[in-house]
Amino acid sequence: MSSETELHGALEIRCLKAGDAETFAALVAEYSWEMRQSPTKLLPDVSKGIVLLEDTMAETVGAFLENQLVGFAIFFDLPEAISGGRAGQLDDLFVAPSFRGRRLARNLIDAVSEIGRERGWIHLRWLVPDDNKAARQAYERFAEAAPWKSYVLWLGDGEQW
Prior knowledge:
Elements: E1 2-4, E2 10-15, H1 21-36, H2 46-54, E3 58-65, E4 68-79, E5 86-95, H3 104-119, E6 121-126, H4 133-139
Parallel strand pairs: 5-6
Antiparallel strand pairs: 1-2, 2-3, 3-4, 4-5
Helix pairs in contact: 1-2
């Protein structure tokens, strides 16, 4: 899953393991801060990184530039009811702000798509917040907007971001 691109350096995309938890946790903290639009930056929590990377239902690929983790995508392999086959659900995708505009999100999606083709997925789907115009414009360059709307039912007592 590695490739050379116009990124001014070697890009490697690979599945993340527990040994990547520390650098992964730093990106997850940055992602959480951005998604919550919090005034206070969060400190990386390595235990949360380990929990995500060792989860048996989710998988995570990371994008490395010059051996630095600069982006990640978390996805699920799910049954697909209509076809009776399987599909991929991209749950979270994040690229560090200083590395945006270099097609890293596209490379991460391509890597997950490659995994899906190997597994015989019918499709790969993902959600994008309505107010994230830049991401929606980027995705519409290579994917179609799905013909459905997404909804959320908050189940916990915690923060709703």
